[in-house]
Amino acid sequence: MFGLFKNKTSEITTPVNGLVVDLQEVNDPVFSGKMMGEGFAVKPADGKIHAPVKGTIKSIFPSFHALTLEAADGLDILIHLGLDTVELDGNGFSSFVQEGQKVDAGDLLIQVDLDFLAQNEKDDIVIVVFPEMQNKKIQINLGEKQLGEVAATLK
Fold this sequence. Notes:
Blueprint: E1 10-13, E2 18-22, H1 29-32, E3 38-44, E4 48-50, E5 55-60, E6 66-71, E7 76-81, E8 93-95, E9 102-103, E10 108-112, H2 114-119, E11 126-130, E12 138-140, E13 143-145, E14 150-154
Antiparallel strand pairs: 1-14, 2-3, 2-13, 3-11, 4-10, 5-6, 5-9, 6-7, 7-11, 8-10, 12-14
Protein name: PTS glucose transporter subunit IIA
Domain PTS EIIA type-1: 28-132
Subcellular location: Cytoplasm
């Protein structure tokens, strides 16, 4: 009974196939300086962005370059697709979810045209941060990961 209030561990899977890297490698001081929160980034091998956990879509930016998800355990997760991609006004992005929709880990959220981003000279890095994470420590599992593999553990 007294174990009910212990901190629980959360596993966050990679939302896309690719190379998981430390936030410090992101070429943007807001993310690399962790001003948006702790997290990780993925250099994507493809443009299919999936839910890293079971939860609910809290918000989707009109340009589809970012969304927030509330995990079933209450953790808020921001997934930001590329750098300066808001300037594309949604071109190159297709959303498969709506605000308020419940998702399972692995569900397709957004499709990104990586070639379109390259043609428009936009960095395609996928950033996953936890803006309101408190009283938890994070362990990032760096390296090449396939969709569904654990990229971060929060304790």
